[in-house]
Amino acid sequence: MLQVLVLHGPNLNMLGIRERSLYGTASLRTINTAITKLAKQKGIHVDIRQSNAEGELVAWIQEAGRGKVDAIVINPAAYTHSSIAIRDAIAAVAIPTVEVHLTNIHGREEFRHRSYIAGVALGQISGFGPYGYQLALHAIHQHLKPNKAL
Ligand code: DQA
């Protein structure tokens, strides 16, 4: 079974309450339930965590590097645009990582266009709402267990 660590960054615990016109009405709990459901169907075990603290996210990425984690899905939220520490942690562990954003960060304010994470990620999924996490699981599965027909 593939082991995937799913990390949600700051303020994502407030989904469903926070700026609903941008981020939608689904709570993080609802999103996590959908992630877990698809993961099961694809034979993936998910460990899902959320933190508002940069250091905690870094510590979890480092922990993944010492463990048996096959891939990481991360929505670094605002740390996307500021955190060299998270970028360096991902580079250090060298675990395939998919960056997810609910909104299309490239269509928003200029300060959101730059991602410090993108350069060390396998790829970035941005703008598809909670479905982005489903896309990330499909992408990871295809990356690690390629269906040659595709
Ligand atoms: C976000 C986009 C970030 O710019 C923002 O700071 C977030 C959420 C997204 O999922 O669209 O908190 O990562």
Describe what you observe in this structure:
With 150 residues, this protein is of the alpha/beta class. 37% of the residues lie in helices and 19% in strands. The protein is built from five helices and five strands. A five-stranded parallel beta sheet has the order 2-1-3-4-5, with helices on both faces. Helix 4 (84-93) links the parallel strand 3 and strand 4. Helix 3 (54-66) packs parallel to helix 4 (84-93). It is globular, with a radius of gyration of 14 Å. The model has no long low-confidence stretch (mean pLDDT 97). The structure holds 1,3,4-trihydroxy-5-OXO-cyclohexanecarboxylic acid.
Summarize the structure.
With about 150 residues, the chain is of the alpha/beta class. The protein has helices spanning about 20-25, 30-40, 55-65, 85-95, 130-145, and strands at about 1-10, 45-50, 70-75, 95-100, 125.
What would the keywords be for this entry?
single chain, five-stranded parallel β-sheet, globular, 150 residues, alpha/beta, 5 helices, 37% helix, binds 1,3,4-trihydroxy-5-OXO-cyclohexanecarboxylic acid
